[in-house]
Each structure stands twice: as structure tokens, then as C-alpha cells.
Amino acid sequence: MKAEKRPCAQERAQEAFLPPTAVLEQLEASLRMIKRRTDVSLAFAGQMAESGAVRLSLFEGPTAGALRGVEVESGHGLGGRAVELSRSIAVGDYLTSPRITHRYDRFISAEGLHAMVAAPVIVGRRPVAVVYGAFREAREIGGRIQDAMAGEVRALEQRLAVLSAMEAGFTDPAETAATLRMRERIRDTYGDLRTLAGRVSDAAVQAEILRIGGRLLDGEADAPGLSTLSRRERDAVALASRGLTNQQIGEALGLSPGTIKSYMKSAMRKLGAATRLEAAILARRTGQIP
Q1: What is the pLDDT of residues 257-288, one digit of tens each?
Q2: HTH luxR-type domain spans which residues (predicted)?
Q3: Closest CA to 130 of 75, 66, 167
Q4: pTM of the model
């Protein structure tokens, strides 16, 4: 008789139930931080409801109240599109953008919003909320604002992952903090191995280093619609995620800054990322870097 396979700790954490009140508390903290770190007119968010729609309920900044309680369905509007793509998306003018459906225009118009960015909050490979930043005028949403949003959403995902792990049975905060530190060390080691592989001239040794580095990936399948990165694109994104400039990445890999810039541009295009930070986040979500 076969022994029943028991889910590993990581699988239990991914399947854990996140108390809605805990998610709301963490979302509120993130909205305050986004409003403080950017000049958005309004930061707002909503949790995923049982129906699969995002119910808007939290707002930071002056609001007319037109969006409160609106349920955004997957694939529709900006937030629904972000959920569908599993990545953030920005538009210079919500009301005229051809990139989204316009099911919720009357609410957006009543609130007086135009330029907007929306980012899904993903925990355990599933979306649990969407965070928005919006302006009351049409304008380009630059990399600084998108990076601030992406950074705060990533921090939010990590906090919720800790809560999820604790709900799954990891009741020791020190243990979950140690797990997160270990993950960061794994990411650093992966980057070091990729750098080392680029410096080795022996093909067999190089292949073995890359094989060992590949064992640090979690094996997730690529998300629908996202292309697989080339080896050099993964190298560039992995090192960029550690805060390295194109010059520093080029020195580590023995390539010119211009070549690194080309790899980063190609990786961002394949991932649908607007910034380097978002590219790193999307590459991690799709299991292409640890």
C-alpha cells in the first residue's frame, strides 16, 4: 500500500487561508506608504472576493466615494487586466486607453481620475488583492512611480506570505523570518553562480555550474503569455534584482554595458515589464530566477 504523500511546508504555506481582516490591515499600511512615497492623487485597493472579482474598499487620499464597493472582474478595467496578466499595468489616461475595457468608466469619471497604475498582489501563486495609484490628470506614469509601487507590492506580498505560513502552522515568527533570509541568500548564490559560469572557459564545467544553479529555481511553469528568457537575459535580470547597474552587471559577466542594456530591454519586453524591478518580480513569479 502506497504511503499518502504529505504536502511539504512550502505547499502548505501556499494553500493557507489568509484572514480577510489581516489582508485589509496590510493593504491599508501599503496604501499609506504608496501615498507617502509617490505624488499620486489617490491610492486605493481591493481584495479578491469569492466570486473572483476585486472589491474596492480601501482609499488613501481625497475621494468622492464613487469607487467604494465597485467589484472589478478579471480581464476588465485596469485592475482586472492586471489580474489577468499577473503583472502591473499603467495607462496615461484611463478613459481613452485602448489597452483596457471600459466597463467601469462611469465610476472612474465620477471620481475624476485619469492616469493610473494597478498591480496585483500575489501570494501562493494566486492573486489576493489589487493595489492602485491614480492621478486626477492625464500624464505619463514614469519609472520612479512604478518602481515605488512595485517595491511596496513586493514588500506586501512578503508580509502576507509570512502570515500565510503562520496560518499553515509556522507559528514562530523567527522561523518565518529565517526562511525569508534564506531565500535572499539563495538569490544571491544563484547570481554568483551565473556570474561564475560566464567566467569559465571550460564548456563542461560551465554546463555543470549552470545545472547546479538551475536547482535553485522552484520549477514553476511560465505564466500564460510570458516568453522564456534566454540564459543571458536571466543573468542580467538576476543581477539587476540585486541593485547592480548595467556597468556593474557588465563587469561581472565580462560584457559591455550596452550589451547588458540590450539584454535588459529584451527581458523587459518579453516579461511585459515597465521597469527593471518589475522585470525581476515577474521573472521570480514565473520561476525563471529564484
Answers
A1: 999 999 999 998 888 887 787 788 788 878 88
A2: 222-287
A3: 75
A4: 0.64
